[in-house]
Automatic annotation (TrEMBL):
It comes from the Bacteria. This is Cytochrome P450. GO terms for molecular function: heme binding; iron ion binding; monooxygenase activity; oxidoreductase activity, acting on paired donors, with incorporation or reduction of molecular oxygen. Keywords: Heme, Iron, Metal-binding, Monooxygenase, Oxidoreductase. PANTHER family: CYTOCHROME P450 YJIB-RELATED, P450, PUTATIVE (EUROFUNG)-RELATED. Pfam families: p450 (PF00067). Cytochromes P450 are a group of heme-thiolate monooxygenases. They oxidize a variety of structurally unrelated compounds, including steroids, fatty acids, and xenobiotics. Belongs to the cytochrome P450 family.
Length: 438
C-alpha cells in the first residue's frame, strides 16, 4: 500500500515537458527538427495530427525495411512489418537493446548520455544482466499478484466512475486515465499517495524523446529527473530499514541482482517502470473511449455482449498501440529480409505499423472487438523484452470496461481531442467527453 511522504524539499509539478518544449520552439523556431526524407517517420507532427497510417501502409506495401539516411535522430532503419519485428526481437544477441549501444528509443546515445547522463535500465540491457534484474521485479506481476490486486483496482475504478459528472463535458484523460494509472503506480511503488501526481509529471519528462533533441532544455530535463531521483532515494533509504514488502522498491532493495545498483541505474529502472506503467495503460484507457466513439458498431457490441470484454481489451491495445516504437542496434553485419545491415545500424521497430499489418490483421484500420487474432498485437513487444507488466495493464483495462458496463455507462467524445506530439509515446493529452447511459 502507499505510504506517507518522506520529509523532502518542495518538488516542482509544472510546467510539463510538453509545455516547456512548445514554449521553447515558439521562441526558437530554428530549433524545430528538420525532416527532409519522405519516410522519416520520427517527425512528431504525423502522430499529433493522426495522419501516420498511410505513410506506414505505403512502406509496408514496398517491403519490411526502409533506410532513412538523414533525420534529427541520425540515420536509421524503419522496420514496419509484424513478421520482421518479431524476427528481430527473437534474436536479442544479434540485435542489442543495451543502453551502451544506444538503448531502446530512437534517440542517439550522445543525446541522452552527455557527461555521464546515461540511464541504464533492465529493458535497455542484454543478457545476462537483463535476466537477473527482470526476475527481481517479475514477482510483482504474477497471476497470483493480479488476483490479489483485483479487488482494490475494482474498488478504486468503481469509486472514480461513480464520481464522474453527468450531463457535462470533462476531460477523460485528466479525470480518469491519469488518475487510475497514477494511483496504480503509487500502490506498486508503495509511493506516498498525496504525492502521486509527481509520477505523471516525471513520466512525461522522462518519456518525451523530442525534448531530448533540444540541447537548451537538457539541463531542465536533468533537473526534473534529479528531483525524481532525490525523492526515490529517500524512499529507498526508508524502505531499506523496514522488513521486505511487496512493493517494487522493497523488491529491488532485497534483491542481489539490483541492490548494488548505482544511482543512475536505479533512476533508469524507475523511469522504465514509471513510463511503462503510466503512459501505456493511461493512453489505452483514453484510446478505448476514442475508438468506441469512432466505431459505434463496436461500442454497441460491447454494450450487448460483455463476454467480449477480454478480447476487446486486446483489440483496443492493438488499435491504440500506446508506445509507437522500440529500437535495436545491430551487433554485427548481417542480412535481413534482403537488406544489408551493418554493425552499429539502428533499427526502429514500429509497433504501431506492425499492429496495422494487413498480412496478419484483416481490415487492420478498423476496430473489431471480435477479432480472433487480436492477441497477436505487438504493443507489449516480443521475446525476452516483452513488457513485464502486461498482465497488470490488461487487468486494469478489463476492470475499467467491466465497471463501465456494470453502470451502463456510454462515453461520447464531446469536445476537444488533442493527441500527444511525440514519436515514442502514442496517445492523448486531452479527450473531452460526456457520459450517458445505454
Amino acid at each position: 500500500m502507499a505510504t506517507q511522504a518522506p520529509e523532502k524539499p518542495q518538488f516542482r509539478t509544472s510546467p510539463s515537458a510538453y509545455e516547456t518544449l512548445v514554449k521553447h520552439l515558439d521562441a526558437h523556431p530554428e530549433d524545430l527538427p528538420k525532416h527532409p526524407e519522405k519516410y522519416d517517420v520520427s517527425r512528431s507532427d504525423i502522430y499529433y495530427e493522426d495522419r501516420w497510417q498511410p505513410i506506414f501502409a505505403e512502406m509496408r506495401a514496398k517491403g519490411p525495411l526502409h533506410y532513412v539516411s538523414e533525420s534529427p535522430f541520425g540515420p536509421y532503419w524503419n522496420v514496419v512489418s509484424h513478421k520482421a519485428i518479431q524476427h528481430i526481437e527473437a534474436l536479442p544477441e544479434l540485435f542489442s537493446s543495451s543502453w551502451e549501444h544506444g538503448g531502446i528509443t530512437i534517440l542517439e546515445r550522445d543525446m541522452d548520455a552527455e557527461e555521464g547522463r546515461e540511464l541504464p535500465m533492465f529493458i535497455a540491457m542484454d543478457r545476462p544482466k537483463h535476466t537477473g534484474q527482470r526476475r527481481t521485479v517479475a514477482p510483482a506481476f504474477t497471476p497470483a499478484e493480479m488476483k490479489r490486486m483485483d479487488d482494490e483496482i475494482r474498488k478504486r475504478t468503481g469509486e472514480l466512475l461513480d464520481s464522474l459528472p453527468k450531463g457535462e463535458v470533462f476531460d477523460w484523460v485528466e479525470t480518469v486515465s491519469i488518475e487510475l494509472t497514477t494511483g496504480m503506480l503509487a500502490i506498486l511503488f508503495g509511493f506516498p499517495w498525496e504525492d502521486r501526481h509527481l509520477l505523471t509529471f516525471w513520466s512525461d519528462w522522462a518519456g518525451d524523446t523530442e525534448i531530448a533533441l533540444v540541447k537548451d532544455l537538457t539541463n531542465d530535463r536533468e533537473e526534473v529527473l534529479q528531483e525524481m531521483a532525490t525523492y526515490f532515494q529517500q524512499l529507498w533509504m526508508k524502505r531499506a530499514q523496514e522488513e521486505p514488502g511487496p512493493d517494487l522498491i522493497s523488491m529491488m532493495i532485497h534483491s542481489p541482482a539490483m541492490n548494488q545498483m548505482d544511482p543512475r541505474e536505479f533512476m533508469g529502472n524507475l523511469v522504465l517502470l514509471i513510463v511503462g506503467g503510466n503512459d501505456t495503460t493511461r493512453n489505452t484507457m483514453s484510446g478505448i473511449i476514442h475508438a468506441f466513439d469512432k466505431f459505434p458498431d463496436q461500442r454497441k457490441l460491447f454494450e450487448e455482449n460483455p463476454d467480449l470484454i477480454p478480447n476487446a481489451v486486446q483489440e483496443c491495445i492493438r488499435y491504440q498501440t500506446p508506445l509507437a516504437h522500440m529500437r535495436r542496434t545491430a551487433s554485427e553485419d548481417t542480412e535481413l529480409f534482403g537488406e544489408q545491415i551493418k554493425k552499429g545500424d539502428k533499427l526502429i521497430l514500429w509497433y504501431l505499423s506492425a499492429n496495422r499489418d494487413e498480412e496478419l490483421f484483416e481490415n487492420a484500420e478498423k476496430l473489431d472487438i471480435t477479432r480472433e487474432n487480436a492477441r497477436r498485437h505487438l504493443s507489449f513487444g516480443y521475446g525476452i523484452h516483452r513488457c513485464v507488466g502486461a498482465r497488470l495493464a490488461e487487468l486494469q483495462l478489463r476492470i475499467l470496461l467491466e465497471e463501465m458496463h456494470k453502470r451502463r455507462m456510454r462515453v461520447h467524445v464531446a469536445g476537444d481531442v488533442e493527441r500527444v506530439r511525440a514519436n515514442f509515446v502514442h496517445g492523448f493529452r486531452k479527450l473531452e467527453v460526456e457520459i450517458t447511459e445505454f
